[in-house]
Amino acid sequence: MLDVKYIRQNLEPVKANCRNRDIDVDVDRVLELDSQRRDLQFRTDNLRKRTKELSQVIPGEKDKARRDKLVAEAKETKESVAQNERKLREVLEVFHEELSKIPNMSHPDAPVGAGEEENREIRHVGEIPKFSFEPKNHVTLGEKLDLIDFEGGTRVVGQKFYYLKNEAVLLEYALIRYAMDMLVQEGFTLYVTPDLARSEILDGIGFNPRGEETQVYSLANSDLCLIGTAEITLGGLYANQILAEDQLPLRLSGISHCFRTEAGAPGRAAKGLYRVHQFTKVEMFAFTRPHESEEMHESFVALEETIFRGLEIPYRVMDICTGDLGGPAYRKYDLEAWMPGRGDHGGWGEVTSTSNCTDYQARRLKIRYKSRETGRNEFVHMLNGTAVAVSRTLIAIMENFQQADGSIVVPEILRKYTGFDVIKR
Known about the structure:
With 425 residues, this protein is an alpha+beta fold. It is 40% helix and 20% strand. The protein has 13 helices and 17 strands. It has helices at residues 4-9, 11-20, 27-57, 64-99, 138-144, 150-156, 167-185, 199-205, 230-235, 293-310, 360-365, 390-400, 415-418; strands at 120-125, 148-149, 163-164, 189-192, 196-198, 224-226, 242-244, 250-259, 278-288, 315-319, 331-338, 348-356, 368-370, 377-379, 381-389, 408-409, 422-423. The strands form 5 sheets. Strands 1-10-11-12-15-9-8-4 form an 8-stranded mixed beta sheet. Strand 13 (368-370) and strand 14 (377-379) form a beta hairpin. Helix 3 (27-57) packs antiparallel against helix 4 and helix 7 (167-185) crosses helix 12. The longest helix is centred in the N-terminal third of the chain and has 36 residues, at 64-99. It is elongated. The two termini are 53 Å apart.
C-alpha cells in the first residue's frame, strides 16, 4: 500500500494515477478516515494516560469526598477508553480496506491506457515460422501424439483440468530443470514452495483471497488458500522481518504448482492449456534496496528473454499500460510468444511477466531492512518475474516446432534433459 503521508503530500498525482489505472477509489475519503483514526488514537492515548494517573492518585487520597469523585472519574474514563477503542477498531478496519484499494504509483514511462490494446511493444525477437502445411493447434497435436488428456481431466476434476502424458511429462521437467540451471548460475537460491498460504499473506502480496472477484481457491473452514503463483509464498517468506542490509539484494526462485479460478475467460483462444486451473511454474523473486529495484527489474526481463531465446521461440517484449497493471505493480513487462494456434489474438500469447512492485507489498507485509545510511528501518522493494510457466511454454514449443508429418521437434537446448529430440506418433 502507499504511505498515507505520501498520499497527503501528493494528492493530485495519486488521484490522477487512480484515473489512469481505471481504479474507482475515493482518495479524499481515505484521508478523512486517516484523520479520524489519528484523532481517536490521540484521545484514547490521553484517556489511558489519565486512567494511569488516577490509579496512582486514588490509593493515597485521604479525603472521602475527593476520593469518591476520583473513583467516579476513573470509572468514566475507563468506559470512555473502551468506547474509543471500539470506535478506533471500526475506523481502522474501514481505513485499511479503503487504503488497500489505492494502487501503487506508475512508472513515468509506463504507457497510459485503459487496456491491453494500449500496451507498447518494445522489441520483437526471432523469426515467425513459415509452414509449408496448415499448422495445427496444440490441442490437436496433443491428442494425436497422446501428450495431453483433456477429457480425463474433465471427468476427474472438471473443465480446464488436464493430464500430461508420455513425452509431455518429460518436457515439463526438462523446462523446469532448464530454468533452474540458468537461475542457479545467476545466483538465485532455489525453493520448492508450499502450494498453500494464509489469507493474510495473499492480501499482503495484493491478491484478494475472498469475495466474488477472487482468482484463487480457498480451503473451507480455514484461512488457507491455494496459491496462484510462487510470488505469494516467496514474497511472504520474510513477512514481519527486518533484514540486514548486507543480505540485499536477495534473489529467490520458487518452483510450485499454481491454482487459478480463471473466472470469465471464455473463447476459443482460452481452450486447451492457455487458461487452466492448475499448472507448474518456476518463479523469480527479489528483495532489494530502493535504488536497486529498477536495475533488478531490467535484469529479470533480460533473463526471461535469455530463456526464450534459448528455446528458439519468437517473442515480443511488451511495456504494460497503466490500465492493465495490477494494483501492486509500479511497472510491468510481459513476454508474448508466437503461438500459431492463437490466430484470433494475432498469434501472440503471454508467457512471462515481471513486475517491480517497489515498497507497495513490503508495507503491507512489514518487510524492512536496517539502513546503514539512515540508521532507520526502511522498506525493501519487491520484484517478481516468471522464469517458465510450463503450460503456456508447452503450447509455444508444440505449435512452433510441429512438422508436416505431425511430429514435434524438441528445442535443442532441452534435449540433454529429455533424452530425445523429436516426438512422433
